[in-house]
Amino acid sequence: MTDFEFYSPTQFVFGKQTEQKVGQLAKQYGATKALVVYGGGSARKSGLLDRVFKSLEEAGVAYVEMGGVRPNPTEAKVYEGIELARSEKVDFLLAVGGGSVIDTVKSIACGVYLDGDFWDLFIGKAKIVKTMSLGVVLTIPAAGSEGSGNAVITNEKTHQKLGIKHPMILRPRFSIMNPELTMTLPEWQTASGICDMIVHILERYFTNTPNTEVADRLCEGVIKAIVNEGRKVIVNPQDYDARANIMWSGMVAHNGTCGPGVEEDWSGHQIEHEISAMYDVTHGAGLAVVTPSYMTFMAKHHPARIRQFAERVFDVVESEVTPAEGQTIDEAVAIEGIRRFKAFLHDDLHLPLTFKELGIENPDIPELTRRLHQNKGEKFGFFYPITPDVTAEIYNICLG
After folding, report:
1. What is the distance between the alpha carbons of residues 58 and 55, in angstroms, rounded to a whole number?
2. Among 238, 13, 323, which residue's Cα sits nearest to residue 138?
3. What is residue 42's predicted lDDT score, i.e. its pLDDT?
4. What is the mean pLDDT of the chain?
């Protein structure tokens, strides 16, 4: 276990009708005029925006709005939001939506006070000097951005999907989490979000740091809970308790709770980011393709953690596994765990497992590989060194 600092100051307000408290919370954190950012029309059609605006008005907080944030959020909305925040002289940012909206708001928060291009923060050419305060009304549990100091944005001009991580200064001041708001989500969004939160945990779980028993057990327990509750919510989307457990799991998966004391990896996310940047697929669905393929490669080359995952999360028993010719018992147990994980993703969540099922008939694997290593260098990854040859092999496993 390594030395660490853990700081997670976000105030979480969880439960039914909690969006009605947004005005008093924004005022509590100094808001006098807020920029409210949201995605498509669902927040308006459902009446959520009206309730948010009414709460702000009752608290005496003025507001302006900006809609139209799309999945795989792009730089264009960040630039628009920065300009609007400056011209309207707002002092608070409010995200009403899921990870795409929250990440856009975080990027606006970084860019408002920056003398230069906010994208320079994402490519390492600039440092954050000051951020605006922000709050969240969460509608899609998936990214965990409601509790993290991270943000990911796609730059359509440079064809890059990159992230920033500033846990000390970029976490929301408050996050309102009402599971009722998720009951009308399409199954695809619910399932993709469940996969995303599982992989957020795996990026911390696939580590070479020794003696991480507490972190391991936290990771394994939360994943098992997500699997159990995920099955329930797909069968019965109106199951409030299952929705509540999924919503809280998404936050726990990415606010750092599962990772203190371990060297995190994030290779799987980086491999997927090139797919969603190039083909504009749903991030969680892309992870359903990439993650089992990544694990299949690791089962042969670095099997111990994959075996532990198989035994502790999907209850694989060594005595019930027969290694194939040339397989070690570690690899065989790992592969059986991956098979059960894939069955959960495909049979229970109805997610894709191959490029073709994802809607990509002829992926350009050389170009995906080139872009990834142009962004991340010739070798990256802490769990196992990811070179262009390794990347290409993993993408090829994604073919099925």
Report:
1. 5
2. 13
3. 87
4. 96
Torsion of CA 225, 264, 255, 241, to 10 degrees: -10
Region 21-30 average pLDDT = 98
**How many CB atoms lie under 10 A from the CB of residue 334?**
29
Sequence-separated (6 or more) residues with CB below 8 Å from residue 244: 14, 179
pLDDT digits (tens, 9 = 90+) for 49-101: 999 999 999 999 999 999 999 999 999 999 999 999 999 999 999 999 999 99
Q: How many residues does the chain have?
A: 400
Reported as type and span, the H/E element at residue 231 is helix 213-235
Q: Which of 5-9, 271-275, 333-337 has the lowest mean pLDDT?
A: 5-9
Q: Which pLDDT score is estimated for 68? A: 96
Amino acid at position 290, single letter: V
- The residue written with tokens 């030395």 in the block is 3
User: 86-116 burial string, b = 16+ CB within 10 Å, else e?
Assistant: eeeebbbbbbbbbbbbbbbbbbbbbbbebee
Which tokens belong to 206? 């696939």
Is the CB of residue 126 less than 8 Å from the CB of residue 182? Answer: no
Rounded distance between C-alpha atoms, residue 131 and residue 137, angstroms: 19
Euclidean distance between CA atoms 365 and 393, whole angstroms: 9
* Model confidence pLDDT, tens digit, residues 318-330: 999 999 999 999 9
Can you read off the two tokens belonging to residue 128?
């954050």
Buried b (16+ CB within 10 A) or exposed e, 211-250: ebeebbebbbebbeebbebbbebbeebebeebbbbbbbbb
Alpha-carbon distance 140 to 12, whole Å? 15
State how beta strands 150-155 and 160-165 pair. Answer: antiparallel
Q: With 0-12 CB in 10 A as exposed, 13-18 as middle and 19+ as buried, what is 125? A: exposed
- Cα distance between residue 265 and residue 63, in whole Å: 40
Distance CA 97, CA 99 (A): 7
Q: CB–CB of 91/135 below 8 Å?
A: no
SS3 161: strand
DSSP state of 320: G
